[in-house]
Amino acid sequence: MADSMVASFWGPVTSTTELCEENYAHSSYxxxxxxxxxxxxxxxxxxxxLVNAFRQGFEKRFSVLHxxxxxxxxxxxxxxxxxxxxxxxxxxxxxxxxxLLYMYVLYSPDWxxxxxxxxxxxxxxxxxxxxxxxxxxxxxxxxxxxxxCLLCIPRMYKYYIQTKDVAAKRLAKLxxxxxxxxxxxxxxxxxxxxxxxxxxxxxxxxxWWHLLMGLNSYYANTxxxxxxxxxxxxxxxxxxxxxxxxxxxxxxxEKRE
Length: 257
Hints:
- The protein has 257 residues and is mostly helical.
- The chain has nine helices and two strands.
- A hairpin with a 3-residue loop joins strand 1 (237-241) and strand 2 (245-249).
- It is globular.
- One of its GO terms (molecular function) is hydrolase activity.
- It is found in: Membrane.
């Protein structure tokens, strides 16, 4: 929410999107305080996933996926802290790149032309970054992003019905649950902003969107790692870090000499 009377380190707001949070209410260095800090758990979850991917010896695509989640969360922090248009791209463009990466992870096991798909997705992502920077898409960006997400759902459902493990299926259900709740938080924050801004305590719907989508990405990545380990015959199982955070543990077959 714009407030021209508030002193800010970053200068006037130039972004094309603002959320339902009072600008610079807590610090002259952070435009949207809660929307910025709510990305910290997302970075930590991505880091945990990255460490597990390394330790379990998964393919590089999964490490890149976790790093992509981390970059997206950091980019979102930078954008919400500054509300500058040039830094808005550090939030929105990585969102598209991340979905393109999910498409590669989801479809690559059955893709026969191994170099064609990653080349196309890379060029598509690069072209989008350039066009989006100059065109400053708003509604088109959202429609485009939703369309890419919808392309991932059929493949996720196929993996779900092919997986018999109860704990792995629970991860897929948590993915759907966090996506649904996160979307509701985002919609409420956008649609009812004027009413919410007059409440004594702002529920910070967009901050909850960040947290829920951080969990959503973590659950999706863990589920996909489980499915990939099954494809490779690694005997995966879902275990829990500190008793509550699920992760994949694999038992690779011993190499024959």
